[in-house]
Amino acid sequence: MERTTIDLWVGLFVLLGLGAILVLALKVGNLGGVNMSDSYSVTASFSNIGGLKARAPVKSAGVVVGRVSAVHFDGERHEAVATFKLDKQYSFSKDTSASIMTSGLLGEQYIALETGGDSAQLKDGDKIKITQSAVVLESLIGQFLYNKAADGGEVK
Amino acid sequence: MPSRLVKGVRGIGHRVVNSLWRLGVASRFFVLILLHSGSSFRRFHLVIKELFSTGVLSLIIILVSGLFVGMVLGMQGYDTLQRYGSEEALGVMVALSLVRELGPVVAALLFASRAGSAITAEIGLMKATEQLSAMEMMAVNPIASVVAPRFWAGVISMPLLAAMFSAMGVFGGYLVGVKLIGVDEGSFWSQMQNAVDFQQDIVNGIFKSFVFGVAVTAIALFEGYDAPPTAEGVSGATTRTVVTSSLAILALDFMLTAFMFRGEG
Description:
By secondary structure, chain A is α/β, with parallel strands linked by helices. Chain A contains 2 helices and 8 strands, in the order αββββββββα.
């Protein structure tokens, strides 16, 4: 085979290999960014977000309508602030409530939105006021045990 | 009676000495390759020519097997994960198993049987037809001009092939998991990106495939160079290349994994 043809093929091969490493790093690994076309960004603060992570889905009535873009801690109010992007084609009322739910018993956590009755719509940069934190399994079990103990005390 | 016993013991000793001797020759051969590899970088077109036959010609089998391994992982993983209601973790499972283990190991096994056997047969035949002796007669060092370029071509192409295998496998898992079965696309990618660490998983996987590349190519070259110069000798050497390098890959994989991922959840 011609020298130039071989050079071309080997060049393609090396580029393809490096491309694969790049894909692994950006798409599979944690070096990539988040991009979503046509969306608006909304924030909500929770007293406890549980295991919510960036890129977790935002669902309304069970349908994915957006993605969490960032989670950070508000040092002044000691709350977790989740920023999420919602698809432009869906609009929600200003008094929408956000709660953190778990899919399945031990599955991934997501934000569930429930729309309210306000006629004004959420806009880019708005903050959702009504929020409900994640249910922490340990505190739930603790509460259950505490109640059980209290019940036992009454029977005596 | 005692003479038969002595014969038996002598037989064992003979075998042990023989295999140790062979191991020593192989190590010396490996060192010779490294010593003479300067010229293959000075005349890099020799390496490029070998990159074509080891790398480019292995592309099809690597890409197709990667795709199918990924698709099967997607199906099997979904079947197991949905019993625990955590099918969103499919992306994590597919990506981690490919990047950490299946990518480097399966790509290296395929590489050993596709390219390693070809290298052994080629060099064995060169030796059988006395091309290597002819080179020596012309004061051309066959290790520098024939063996070292093949070694570096194998070492360069192995990590690239393994990365392509993993990328193709993740794509196959995506095709089956998201497009066919209907796992949520965002969860698939987001959980994968949360779980797969660049340094810890991807770089370690690439390092593994680099080590496999060194092992497979060195074994293939040595078997070819050491082959008895007959038709049977070359065929036996080719078989030994595939068997020895497959076992070496698995043993090295266990050792590397023990060093890399010890004590992790």
